[in-house]
Amino acid sequence: MTVAVVQPGGLAEESRALKRALKRVERRRRLRAIGLIGPLFLFLAVVFALPIVLMLHRAVDNPEVVTHLPRTTEAIQGWEGDGTPGEPAFAALGQDLNEAFYARRLAEPARRLNYEITGFRSMIMATSRKLPRGEAPESWKRTFLDIDPAWSEPRYWQAIKDTAQPYTLHYLLAALDLRMTSDGGVVAAPKEQAIYRGLFGRTLWMAFVITAASLLMGYPLAYLMVNGGKATRGVLLIFVLLPFWTSLLVRTSAWVVLLQQEGLVNQALQWIGAIDDPVQLIYNRFGVYVGMVHILLPFMVMPIYAVMRGVPASHVQAAASLGATPFTAFRRVYLPQTVSGVGAGCLLVFILSVGFYITPALLGSPRDQMVSYFIAYYTNQTLNWGMASALGVILLAAILLLYAVFSRMLGLGRPRLA
């Protein structure tokens, strides 16, 4: 009988080969997983993360004056802010205005300076058209003052100096009804110009009311869908999902028809004798609430419905067998198990409602517009993308803060003991 003898060195070599093979298999598995989820991460980075980063950058970006008035930017830094700048600053501005005028790039810095002082754009454009071309004048300062005596006022030069920086806090401060003084301090904007803090407060309050109304209507509806018969569940599910098959604009326009003074709702109220004359149900806060709750209700119902389906009916039955009343069993056994669905639905509805634009614009009055209306206004009409980005950044920060507080209150994301 022959016995094979395995050398210790051979076992070690086989062990190392096995480890290398396992590492190759693990590496291929990891690469395969990355290949599967890589496109998803790339999609999220392009359509979600990148726009947020660009918005954050645009809220503090301030390139107009630095780029198009470079000589003035350098010359104005030596001015202390007292009186009118000297001849070098006027000469630099004259050369920059002439160059930008010929290159047709004067509109950008003029528009940016107009954000600081109303009417500054017209002053710059009118001055640039009257400046001498070709040979420089003997005194640029005298030339500017002859064209428009307002160039002797320090506030215009202070505005140029304040904007002659590549980055600025002007937009973010303005979005909070604050402004920066010439000495670098921060003060509150005049009361007649302070609109944005009230706007954010109105937006968050309206979102809270819409979320509360959706919860009061959505929770019983989800409960009925789960505990009703199959026929009831099917019909209610169709009614909940039906709005998703209709355009948002069509649904909002339908409420315009229903809620107007000669609409179906007013006619029905008059027919049953509830009112004598038509009441104003549209172009006010009530119309906005009705339209937005109707649109956002499915986003409240579906998360609650999904969680309720996972709650065993035996839990409530066990509580009843131990002597608990139906209300006590619901409050102490059933409701705590649906908190996660309530939290998810409330967060979803709240976040969606703070960004609504079409429904408040069509169903509300000018006093019922939300932050999204002003973001669209600055983006599409005045082309003040810095201000639009700043409003978006403040709104994003408020939502993240409220999300953190809400999640901590409800314990979302924390593991629950069985």
From TrEMBL:
Gene3D superfamilies: MetI-like (1.10.3720.10). Residues 200-406 form the ABC transmembrane type-1 domain. Pfam families: BPD_transp_1. It is found in: Cell membrane. GO terms for cellular component: plasma membrane. The chain crosses the membrane at residues 33-56, 204-224, 236-258, 286-307, 341-363, 383-406. Its main location: membrane. GO terms for biological process: transmembrane transport. It comes from the Bacteria. It is a multi-pass membrane protein. SUPFAM superfamilies: MetI-like. Belongs to the binding-protein-dependent transport system permease family. CysTW subfamily. This is ABC transporter permease. The lineage of its organism: Bacteria, Pseudomonadati, Pseudomonadota, Alphaproteobacteria, Rhodospirillales.
